[in-house]
């Protein structure tokens, strides 16, 4: 029987709003990152250490950012172990030093960096499209962190494809179903409270679609709710009408 | 043979061959696609690979790493045409067969990488172990838990550990997994690793998942982690395989 994960030590979830990570390139084209952390409201011990980890598949780099009371970003924040900065994700960890060394006091995971020129409040996209090698498949939802929409990079113009009404009409309702199905049936997540959790953000988005309604309490109602929400999603964005219009223009 | 990468036609030919292996009329191994300019193209470096057998994943990727290093070649993990070419080149050496001798290649991502898919990237029989080896290049033997298997049969231990980013990149965890699941006398995986009960790989992952809620696993040493594990993972693993 799998072990149920229990948060014995009351580890805190660090909110995304308190973290900003930006990946930049220097004059030689080498990628590094800048960050700002505001951990003042969490009550962490002053000597707790803060770390930032950059990771992607089998590559991980860990950076020591000093203590909560005396932050000391390392001078070398180059992402040298990564082939490219695309699809790198970050996690922030705060760990105890004095009482129980190594205990995790706070964490934020699956953080995607924002672009240097991007306004912070514009960086949250529920399903950002990302080019990828997908063989003969056109698209696929990736769940390594918050879901992203992988689109075959070997299309004549993948960005244009994603923008087309045909693509939107055919892909987005299916992707929507897959994501909400995963949240409810596989992740068994039903909360809309924690906005630092992608699953909550997706469920909140879904409940706000006109005609979708709230997340049902009973598991045997999930399927119908997802189907109803997918139909409401299509209505909200007038997918059929836009598709027909594109066809006839 | 000089290392190349497939072009689109080469990738399609290899893919068609793999698909045909599940039919009653399998195509012949596409050997000519490895050299025919219509199917393969040169790479930026001069890397030579010899056809040879490999007893373990470790042997395979150690050989590849040495070959790449000698040519100062750094393969990209996203170069699926390159990794597919290498997998095709060593296909006859690493592909499992049935009792009747028929190829049993398994799913396509074992041969043609799905590098963008976190659920399947590590399943490639060449790129998967290679990047695990590279992630522990300061001491690759610590990752033997994921590299001691036959190249064509990685098994459940690899599936359980390699599919989890925080496990496969953590030196302390990988050293601990190797201590528990690899018999130092034979270099082979212990049978206990495949157990779905106490002391098996799945329990090991479950325990680590619980630890991950409480501890900053990146700050632990192998000895520190070992001391924290429950009794089903004894300090001295059983000596029998």
Termini gap of chain B: 38 Å
Question: How much strand content do the residues of chain B show?
Answer: under 5%
What is the C-alpha radius of gyration of chain A, as a whole number of Å?
Answer: 21 Å
Protein chain pair with the most extensive contact, residues per chain: A-B, 33 and 38 residues
User: How many helices of chain B?
Assistant: 11
Walkthrough of the structure:
The complex is a heterodimer of chains A (249) and B (241). Chain A has 249 residues and is of the alpha+beta class. Helix content of chain A is 25%, strand content 24%. A 5-stranded mixed sheet of chain A has the order 1-7-6-4-5, with no helix packed on it. In chain A, strands 8-10-9 form a 3-stranded mixed sheet. In chain A, helix 2 runs antiparallel to helix 5. About 2% of the residues of chain A have low confidence. Chain B has 241 residues and is mostly helical. In chain B, 41% of the residues lie in helices and 2% in strands. In chain B, helix 1 crosses helix 3, helix 2 crosses helix 5 and helix 9 packs across helix 11. The longest helix of chain B is centred in the N-terminal third of the chain and has 14 residues. Chain B is globular. The N and C termini of chain B lie far apart (38 Å). The model of chain B has no long low-confidence stretch (mean pLDDT 90). Classes of the chains: A alpha+beta (249), B mainly alpha (241). At the A-B interface, strand 4 and strand 5 of A face helix 5, helix 8 and helix 10 of B.
């Amino acid at each position: 029987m799998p072990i149920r994960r229990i948060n014995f030590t009351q580890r805190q979830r660090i909110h995304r709003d308190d973290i900003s990570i930006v990946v930049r390139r220097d004059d030689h084209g080498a990628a590094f990152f800048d960050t700002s952390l505001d951990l003042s409201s969490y009550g962490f011990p002053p000597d707790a250490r803060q770390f930032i980890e950059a990771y992607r598949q089998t590559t991980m780099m860990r950076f020591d950012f000093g203590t909560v009371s005396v932050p000391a970003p390392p001078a070398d924040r180059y992402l040298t172990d990564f082939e490219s900065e695309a699809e790198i994700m970050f996690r922030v960890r705060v760990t105890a030093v004095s009482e129980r060394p190594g205990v995790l006091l706070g964490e934020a995971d699956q953080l995607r960096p924002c672009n240097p020129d991007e306004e912070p409040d514009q960086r949250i996209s529920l399903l950002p499209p990302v080019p990828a090698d997908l063989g003969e498949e056109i698209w696929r939802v990736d769940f390594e962190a918050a879901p992203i929409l992988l689109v075959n990079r070997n299309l004549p113009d993948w960005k244009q494809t994603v923008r087309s009404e045909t693509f939107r009409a055919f892909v987005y309702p299916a992707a929507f179903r897959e994501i909400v199905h995963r949240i409810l049936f596989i992740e068994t997540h039903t909360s809309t409270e924690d906005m630092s959790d992608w699953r909550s953000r997706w469920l909140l988005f879904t409940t706000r679609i006109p005609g979708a309604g709230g997340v049902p309490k009973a598991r045997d109602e999930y399927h119908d709710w997802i189907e109803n929400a997918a139909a409401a999603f299509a209505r909200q964005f007038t997918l059929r009408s836009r598709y027909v219009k594109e066809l006839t223009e | 043979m000089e290392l190349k990468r497939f072009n689109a036609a080469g990738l399609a030919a290899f893919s068609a061959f793999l698909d045909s292996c599940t039919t009653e009329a399998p195509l012949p191994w596409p050997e000519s696609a490895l050299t025919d300019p219509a199917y393969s193209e040169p790479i930026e470096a001069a890397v030579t690979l010899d056809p040879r057998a490999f007893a373990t994943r470790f042997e395979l990727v150690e050989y590849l790493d040495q070959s790449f290093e000698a040519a100062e070649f750094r393969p990209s993990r996203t170069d699926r045409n390159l990794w597919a070419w290498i997998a095709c080149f060593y296909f006859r050496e690493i592909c499992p067969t049935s009792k009747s001798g028929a190829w049993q290649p398994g799913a396509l991502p074992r041969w043609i990488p799905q590098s963008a898919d976190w659920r399947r990237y590590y399943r490639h029989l060449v790129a998967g172990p290679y990047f695990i080896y590279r992630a522990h290049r300061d001491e690759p033997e610590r990752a033997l838990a994921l590299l001691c298997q036959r190249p064509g049969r990685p098994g459940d231990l690899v599936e359980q550990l390699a599919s989890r980013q925080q496990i496969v990149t953590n030196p302390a965890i990988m050293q601990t997994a190797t201590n528990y699941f690899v018999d130092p006398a034979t270099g082979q995986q212990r049978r206990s690793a495949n157990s779905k009960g106490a002391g098996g790989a799945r329990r090991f992952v479950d325990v680590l998942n619980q630890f991950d809620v409480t501890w900053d696993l990146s700050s632990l040493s192998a000895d520190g982690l070992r001391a924290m594990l429950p009794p089903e993972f004894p300090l001295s693993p059983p000596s029998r395989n």
